[in-house]
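Crash report, auto-generated. Payload:
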Amino acid sequence: VDAAAAAMPHNAGKAAEYGEEAARCPYTGATVPAADPSAGASSLSESAASEKTNGPAEPGVNAAGGRLERVRADASGQALTTNQGVRVSDNQHSLKAGLRGPALLKDFVLREKVTHFDHERIPERIVHARGSAAHGYFECQRALTDLTAAAPFAEKGKRTPVFVRFSTVAGERGSKDTARDVRGFAVKFYTDEGNWDLVGNNMPVFFIQDAMKFPDLVHAVKPEPHHGMPQAASAHDTFWDFVSLMPESTHMLMWLMSDRAIPRSYRMMQGFGVHTFRFVNAKGESRLVKFHWNPVLGTHSQVWDEAVKVSGADPDFHRRDLWEAIDAGNGPQWELGVQVFTEEEADQFSFDVLDATKIVPEELVPVVPVGRLVLDRNPDNFFAETEQVAFCAAHVVPGLDFTNDPLLAGRIHSYVDTQISRLGGPNFHEIPINAPLAPVQNNQRDGMHRQAIHRGRVAYEPNSLAGGCPFQAGMEGFVSFPEPAAGDELRGHPEKFAEHYNQAALFYASQAGWERGHIASAFAFELSKVTVPAIRRRMVASLRNVSDELAQAVAQGLGMELPDPLPRAIEDPPRPEVEVSPSLSLTARPGDGGIATRKVAILVAEGVDAKAVSAVADALIGAGATVRLVGQRIGPLAAEGGQALDADGSLDNQPSALFDGAVVPGGEAAVERLRADGRALEFLRDAFRHGKTLMGMGEGKQLFAAAGIEPDEADGGLLLVDGAPAKSAPMFIEALARHRHPERETSPPAV
Ligand code: HDE
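Recovered output after restart:
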């Protein structure tokens, strides 16, 4: 934009102010010559994209590769045009007969713009509507050719590009991130033998055993149909009515009521393929397999009160967290682990591996690490990539196959089917984010939004006119594992599917004490939102089959008598192989011991001890944490001795729930101001209740006393210190690396 044009008032063409002459000869707006498409355009868009997204895609490493680059659009230095490429002279005014006259139908510029706008939205996903995604790669760290011919596991060091979308399940597209819910963990591997989608969740089991029940489950958990409430919540009558009548959901309910359902970050949760899948090697031999993603940062969660407050303070909390971490070069990583076993071994288990409400305990079959997932690039465009990506449980590549899990069978159908209405036709595989890197050649033709221009007259096979191409690949192609099938056609389930409580009990027994407390509170809270007492009673009766301790705690939380246990489907359940599995507790994966990407608030006000602020901030930043100075308002303030500081956030716009820890430095005047500010006291009380790491330095200690927070020897996360920051900062860092301090929890909260 040249300087003269930029200097003109933005409404320079507004005719009423410039007379009839100007109306007949409208201001043309600022234009610049079009970039030379053969030279500038693609490098310009690539470099601009790189700046925004933290580095260009490395060839062969990142999913973008050439495929996404071809369709990237960047308007830098370009004139505004219609969709037909006609330059638009005036994007502010519709075409009228006289300045005060009617708008004209022939104004194709206006009509095209508004018509396109009218159709901007597409249907949201029926479930998992709310999500966030990133590009990255999977790196094989152990060749698995003895087990599978699948391309990503072909050799150590091989990298396969991926696009990964995390999601909540129940909420609509604009719902909050921190709802109590299952999280989707969907990975699209762009392998050199076609796309493989591992469409998993952050919990290893599911609510139901058979696809037949899925629409009912979803109708029960979604907002109630008469009034459309509640949004993104399972705490309502229809959900608990359904699950209390569906004892097979009990194991999943334990996970859902645990802190797993309120993760601190997408980067700090596990992922699971859930179903038992099949590995098939080049010789056609098969083993059964379960997939696990384990986060390098460890598994960490929020507490319920915190999740509720975060949803108000920042409904995009998880989306922002993922985006900012990748943008800052701290892309998250997961280890892929596999549990591999034979059909004969599976036959001996006390549960059925085709039942998606059961795990295979790690004590029974160890999880073997085979590779790592790295997410290192944010999408360029949310709609084009995150919204239009279409995962599908049926997308497997040679070397992988399904089992007869009846839930999986329904999924194999559902995902393609749903995209046809969501993405407007059968050609959604051509949308760049969905298109495989492997070449696509077949005789499927036409349909809405077809992009490929198929040449020649042959669209059938066999043919001679096109030399028989494209030809069948035979054993080079995907060959289904020849699993023998026999049996009568009937509706029903295998016997072991009828046992519903062993693994729910296993999960509960494997939790730390505070995790058990959170599960009981979550059940009591959710059931307290249920208005029909009979549903509450039925649910507590079902919990008696899991643990009387749990049922008792929930009944007490609801102020009700303990009901008789719900009758079990089988009288004499099989004895489980494992009764405690430590890996089911969040505490089993504390992470790498660092504080990288943790967020810390330093509370500041006029007169704060600037030296302490910088010393602590430097130490934290040096250890990889993100530091924000939170003041009574944003902007500059005078620290002790007149030095200037700049507050990044305020007590209003950055409440404590958004941080992992907080520091109150000394400075008498500052502490005096904060003591008189109820928001500062509430900040500390919330942080304390949520188990965060806290440090008061010098006079800063007084703010804790004012908030009613007393020192306690047993509380490793509350540091009230005097003396030099050089000594206290490392103590704070060490306490922060423990993430949370549940040892301070009391019920009800003392603070
Ligand atoms: Fe899904 N599921 N699902 N699901 N699911 C969808 O597909 C479905 C199930 C999962 O980020 C839908 O594209 C059926 C289990 C994820 O885009 C739909 C059944 C697991 C995502 C669908 C299940 C999942 C979906 C909605 C039972 C964990 C989001 C939009 C038979 C292993 C993917 C779409 C993304 C999405 C159907 C059960 C995971 C309607 C019928 C079990 C992560 O097709």
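Post-recovery validation: The first helix runs from residue 3 to 7.
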